Amino acid sequence: MLDGSMLNTAVMAFAGGIYGSCLGALWSFCLCGLLTLLGCAVILGGGSDFLLLQVGLGPLFGPQGGGFMAGIVAASYSAGVRKNHPGGSARDILSPLVGTSWDVLLAGGLGALICVFLAQAIPHISVLQRSDALALAIVIVSFASRAIFHRESPLGNADSIKRHGLLGTDNYKISWIGWMSPPARLLMVGIGIGGLAGGVAMFSQQALLPMVEAGRISPSAAGTVPVIFCWGLSAMSLTALQLGQGPMLKVPVTHGMAVLGAVAFLNTGSLLAGVLGGVFGAFLQELLARMFTNHGSNHLDPPAMTIAAGIFLYSFLP
What we know:
By secondary structure, this protein is an all-alpha fold. The protein has one domain (4-313). It is 66% helix and 0% strand. It has helices at 4-23, 25-44, 50-56, 69-82, 102-121, 133-150, 158-164, 183-213, 219-237, 239-243, 255-268, 271-293, 302-314. Helix 5 (102-121) packs across helix 6. The longest helix has 31 residues, at 183-213.
């Protein structure tokens, strides 16, 4: 039986998941990024960590719940089972789902509920605790949605793989983010976001440590802001992808690279390491997109996979 705290978490996750499903996965993620940035700003001003840790990254509207994952599960169910997805495909994560049916929204709420509790359980599992709990929970539930609602393997549609090759892109026509996929562009984007995330991590850490020593903010808040600030910035930038048309929507998708760049700096104290972390994240993201996203019938998020895999690999470095 759930205790009061667990019951409250369940209600928040389920309710946030329904709301996030109404908005659709990408739009809810953009709002999650905004909430996260505002939460970081509050902490940098010496304020409460509630907005960041309980809303932007927590059960209320974190990416593992209503702030992204609910929309992924709802879209997968809508396209794969109910056949009422407004865009016709669960790969479409831009379309709001409020106009579908009540059970689609229910599926999103339940998906958020499961993912939130899974993210809380992962840090207690010996091998999995080496990874990022939120990102890994998103990846696991996305794979499960593909298997349950689309009867598809983790790699995606077998006919597409046979036609194009597992790592093939048909000259980027089937790429997840084709305008960012060419290697030279990935390199430059990775350098840019890695250096940016490393620099923000450096200066925010310098600003926050005296506040921790003075007892103004919690150590968990001070440890989270340097890692997540540019993640939120990158999430907010996807508003252009959500609302734009034609060339206007072709923005980079960089939140996975931002986390790996920030963590690389924080582990080494070197901005060059931050740059290299961003570049590593860029190419890892493209590889994972080719393996698991490009051929799939639902959206398997390459940045989430990049964060989960990258943090896991980082954990083995000296």
